[in-house]
Design brief:
It comes from Methylophilus luteus. The protein is α+β, with helices and mostly antiparallel strands. It has five helices and 14 strands. 25% of the residues lie in helices and 30% in strands.
Length: 242
């Protein structure tokens, strides 16, 4: 296991979770490597961890650590080299009128209502929707609203000020990290594509070299969209390569 040599990161300890059902590959079990204690994973420490393939879920920093599977590959996009495809240019044009606000990460009823509708449409009445509404709201807050790092939410609204999309983003030392995006699935739109394109443009404005896109899995249809954004670097044996 290769970890950063920064002194503050050396104070962390790491443990491997028990096996749990993989959310991306059916009939597979997954395990994660968790960085502890959580309170030490601040913006500086997380900037080092993300360069080593870690991601954030709430206050947890983790990376896949499956004994017999290495399908999850960390990918990032060097934003200065990105050129949009024709379909991506159409998405930029189509959604250019969306009004954008950058706010501190936190809980908002309007956001949660959009998130709930998005999850229901995308995942139906799975296990995460069988509990009480209060339970789902608590899970949402833990997942996207609680953070120890520098996290923000991007609101995308139409001309009538209707909320159409929310993107949760972490700011790290060498880029932006796309945490999660949810949007109004009732519209015939390419909101997800537009969100990534907007993040690429914003990273350029901030003079940050990378947009971290999380994990890519070749055999997961849920991950296919990430390969539409090129060029990419992937983390292989602790080294970022094309």
């Amino acid at each position: 296991m290769t970890l950063p040599t920064d002194a503050s990161l050396q104070k962390l300890q790491f443990y491997v979770t028990t096996a749990y059902p993989c959310g991306y590959l059916p009939k597979k079990l997954a395990q994660s490597l968790i960085a502890t204690p959580q309170n030490l994973v601040d913006a500086h420490v997380y900037s080092g961890l993300i360069q080593q393939g870690f991601r954030r879920s709430g206050k947890f920093a983790y990376r896949p650590h499956c004994e017999q599977c290495n399908a999850c590959i960390s990918v990032r996009l060097p934003v200065s080299e990105f050129t949009p495809t024709r379909s991506q240019q159409r998405a930029l044009k189509k959604h250019a009128d969306l009004q954008i606000s950058i706010i501190e990460a936190g809980y908002h009823e309007e956001h949660f209502a959009l998130y709930h509708a998005y999850q229901k449409q995308r995942h139906g009445n799975g296990p995460e929707h069988t509990g009480e509404p209060e339970d789902e709201a608590a899970q949402y807050q833990q997942f996207l609203c609680q953070t120890n790092v520098e996290s923000i939410m991007i609101e995308f609204r139409d001309a009538q000020q209707m909320l159409k999309m929310v993107s949760v983003i972490d700011l790290v030392a060498d880029g932006l990290s796309a945490v999660y995006t949810f949007y109004d699935t009732r519209d015939k739109a390419s909101y997800g594509t537009y969100s990534i394109l907007w993040q690429i443009a914003w990273a350029r404005q901030l003079a940050l070299p990378y947009l971290y896109l999380g994990y890519w899995i070749a055999d997961s249809d849920k991950m296919t969209y990430k390969q539409q954004f090129q060029p990419q670097e992937k983390l292989v044996d602790g080294v970022w390569v094309r």
